C-alpha cells in the first residue's frame, strides 16, 4: 500500500510540474493578417573541451499557424572553425523514448554559418540559424515522450547528440536545462 501511495504521489508531482511550465515569448505579434510567436532560445546541448566550446539552442516559432523549430548552433574556439551548412536535404531526426523517430524537414535553401573573430578574447566564433518544419507523423508523440537522441543531417555530415534529463551548463552557471523534455514542455506554446 505504501509503494502504491508513493508511486501515485510521484506521478501527481510529475503531472503538476509539467502543468506549471509557462509560455514565454521573445516575440509575439498579432495583426489582422499575420501571427508570429517565438519562444526564447533554450540550451539543449553543450560541449566544452579545452579552448573549444559548442552550444545548440532550440526555439519554437509559430508563423501564421505553422510551427517551426529554430535550431541555432554556436561554436567558439581559439582554433579555426570549419563552416557548418544546411541544404535542401538537411533534416533533424528526433528519437523519442518510445523508440519512434520523428523527422523535421529543412524549410529553407542552402544556409551556412557566419564566421566572426572576437579580437578581445582572440576567439573564432561561428553561428548558424536554421528553421525546420514539423511533419504530421509523430507530432503528437513529441508532446508525450522525452527525447533520447537528436541526429542532425547537415549538408556534408551527420552528427548525433544525446539528450540529457538535466543539463547544468558550464557556461551559463545559474541555469539548469531539461533537454529531454523540451517538446513536451514548450510545443504547446506555438500551437
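^ C-alpha cells above, recovered residues below v
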Amino acid at each position: 500500500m505504501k509503494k502504491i501511495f508513493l508511486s501515485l504521489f510521484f506521478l501527481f508531482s510529475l503531472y503538476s510540474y509539467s502543468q506549471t511550465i509557462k509560455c514565454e515569448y521573445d516575440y509575439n505579434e498579432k495583426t489582422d493578417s499575420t501571427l508570429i510567436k517565438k519562444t526564447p532560445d533554450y540550451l539543449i546541448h553543450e560541449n566544452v573541451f579545452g579552448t573549444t566550446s559548442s552550444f545548440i539552442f532550440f526555439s519554437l516559432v509559430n508563423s501564421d499557424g505553422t510551427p517551426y523549430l529554430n535550431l541555432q548552433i554556436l561554436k567558439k574556439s581559439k582554433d579555426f572553425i570549419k563552416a557548418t551548412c544546411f541544404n535542401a536535404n538537411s533534416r533533424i531526426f528526433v528519437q523519442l523514448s518510445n523508440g519512434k523517430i520523428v523527422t523535421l524537414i529543412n524549410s529553407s535553401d542552402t544556409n551556412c554559418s557566419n564566421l566572426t573573430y572576437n579580437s578581445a578574447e582572440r576567439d573564432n566564433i561561428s553561428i548558424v540559424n536554421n528553421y525546420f518544419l514539423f511533419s504530421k507523423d509523430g507530432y503528437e508523440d513529441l508532446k508525450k515522450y522525452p527525447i533520447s537522441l537528436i541526429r542532425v543531417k547537415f549538408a556534408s555530415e551527420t552528427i548525433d547528440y544525446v539528450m540529457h534529463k538535466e543539463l547544468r551548463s558550464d557556461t551559463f552557471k545559474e541555469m539548469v536545462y531539461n533537454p529531454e523534455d523540451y517538446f513536451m514542455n514548450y510545443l504547446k506554446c506555438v500551437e
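Residues 104 and 144 are 17 Å apart (CA to CA).
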